[in-house]
Amino acid sequence: MTFVRFREMVPNLFLVALFINVPDLWASDRRHSRHASVGGGMTNQLDPRNTAAINTTASRKFLQEFLQDIPPPIIGPVFDKTVPNNVTGLVGRTAYLHCRVKNLGNRTVSWIRHRDIHLLTAGRYTYTSDQRFEAIHEPHSENWSLRIKYPQKKDSGIYECQISTTPPIGHPVYLTVLEPTTEILGGPELFIDQGSTINLTCLVQFAPEPPPTVGWTHEKQPINFDSPRGGISLVTEKGSTTSSRLLIQKASSSDTGYYSCDPSNANSATIRVHILNGEHPAAMHHGQGSIPLCPPIVSAMIVPFLLIFTARDL
């Protein structure tokens, strides 16, 4: 503590000491007056316990009033670290990045994209030509949010909530934007015995909303559920993960080929179905009923030698 600060505090310290001892002086004065009254015929005396209680109460009251006049220490702005800083968004669905600042004062909160060090917003104003980004702030609140409309996978990355102190201080928020995925279980190839039931299950995940429709095609032709063949049904359950199950009973050779699941708001998925008629799957890969014993070129080399040995025997 410097001498100047000590000199400034001396009057305050003197006042504290003075008011702490005022009750003692007042009590002493009353004690003398009471003793003087005894000679005049009065028998009342001041109780020492009452004197101590009055002394303590007056001291506390003065200290409370004195301390209220002392300005509180200045605390700079701080980030509320309890706000989640890992955000997962979906392609096409509005994403919100949240930032809460306490003791902001007259400073400004900005949002900066780390990928290209681009200033997106400052206060409640947007400083980018990309109108998908917008600052959200309610007056007199501590929340400063960044709204991203129609986010794309390329929007994934680090965004910084920054306060205009000297030097600036920042709080990173990590955004991950997921694309919808479509998968047919058991792919990319499925082997089914002839006469059994083909069961194809398609799963659609990370879509901004459940797909309004999920279509199926066979060899690029829409599947006709009312065809004379019969035995074809579709069961679709929508939710955060949408499942669509295609059932084809009594599979025949005509059911062989490529099947595609086509959600209306996500990419399609394809699987190849093989119908086995007592054949081994390995044979299907060769396109023949059995595996060749040796390559054709080897057979071509062996035939002349067989003819020579046959002629000698004759």
Automatic annotation (TrEMBL):
Annotated signal peptide: 1-27
Gene3D superfamilies assigned: Immunoglobulins
Keyword Zinc (UniProt): no
GO process terms (BP): synapse organization
Keywords, sorted A to Z: Signal
The keyword Signal belongs to this UniProt entry's keyword annotation: yes
One CC-aspect GO term: neuron projection membrane
Entry-linked InterPro entries: Ig-like_dom, Ig-like_dom_sf, Ig-like_fold, Ig_sub, Ig_sub2, Ig_V-set, Zig-8
Domain Ig-like: 77-164, 180-272
Name recorded for this polypeptide: Lachesin
Species annotation: Schizaphis graminum
